[in-house]
C-alpha cells in the first residue's frame, strides 16, 4: 500500500465536528519567521501557536482557518484549507521538517493581526541590521 505525505501541517480529522475550526498556514523566510517568533514570545499576553520549520529556508505559522482570504503581507504566503475541517497533527508533515513550536506545547493558532505586526517589526529589524554594516 502506497501512502503520500502532505506538506500541510494539518491532516483530516477522523472525528471532525461541524464546528471544527481547522487551520491555515502562513509561510515566511526562516530568518524573518524566527525574529517574529521572538517578538511574539516577548510580547505581554501575546501568544504564538505551532510553528513548523521545513528544514530549510521557510517557517510556517499555524493561523485560524479563513486567514488566507484576507492575508496580504508582502514576502509571505498564506495557504488556506478551503473549509476541509482539518486539524493539527503532532507529527511533522514532511520528511526533513520539524516543529519549532509543536502542537500541544503552544496555543492552538497564532493571531493573524499579531503575526502581521510581528512580521513587520521583524522585517524592519532585519533591514536595520543588514544596513548597519
Give structural attributes:
alpha+beta, 5-stranded antiparallel beta sheet, 2 helices, 25% helix
Q: What is the C-alpha radius of gyration, as a whole number of Å?
A: 15 Å
Low-confidence residue ranges: 1-8, 11-19
| Series of secondary-structure elements, N-terminal to C-terminal | EEHEEEEEH
Strand order of the largest sheet: 5-2-4-3-7
Question: What's the β-strand tally?
Answer: 7
Q: How many separate helices?
A: 2
User: What is the end-to-end distance?
Assistant: 55 Å
Structural class: alpha+beta
What can you see in these coordinates?
With 133 residues, this protein is α+β, with helices and mostly antiparallel strands. The chain has two helices and seven strands; from the N terminus they run ββαβββββα. The protein has helices spanning 30-42, 112-131, and strands at 10-12, 23-29, 51-53, 58-64, 77-79, 86-88, 98-101. Helix 1 crosses helix 2. The protein is globular, with a radius of gyration of 15 Å. The chain starts with 9 loop residues before the first strand and ends with a helix.
Topology (SSEs and partners):
Elements: E1 10-12, E2 23-29, H1 30-42, E3 51-53, E4 58-64, E5 77-79, E6 86-88, E7 98-101, H2 112-131
Antiparallel strand pairs: 1-6, 2-4, 2-5, 3-4, 3-7
Helix pairs in contact: 1-2
Amino acid at each position: 500500500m502506497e501512502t503520500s505525505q502532505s506538506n500541510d501541517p494539518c491532516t483530516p480529522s477522523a472525528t471532525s465536528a461541524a464546528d471544527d475550526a481547522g487551520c491555515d498556514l502562513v509561510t515566511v523566510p526562516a530568518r524573518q519567521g524566527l525574529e517574529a517568533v521572538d517578538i511574539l514570545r516577548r510580547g505581554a499576553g501575546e501568544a504564538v501557536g505551532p510553528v513548523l520549520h521545513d528544514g530549510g529556508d521557510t517557517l510556517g505559522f499555524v493561523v485560524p482557518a479563513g486567514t488566507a482570504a484576507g492575508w496580504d503581507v508582502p514576502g509571505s504566503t498564506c495557504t488556506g484549507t478551503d473549509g476541509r475541517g482539518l486539524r493539527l497533527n503532532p507529527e511533522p508533515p514532511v520528511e526533513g521538517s520539524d516543529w519549532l513550536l509543536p502542537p500541544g506545547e503552544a496555543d492552538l493558532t497564532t493571531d493573524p493581526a499579531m503575526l502581521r505586526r510581528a512580521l513587520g517589526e521583524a522585517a524592519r529589524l532585519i533591514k536595520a541590521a543588514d544596513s548597519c554594516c
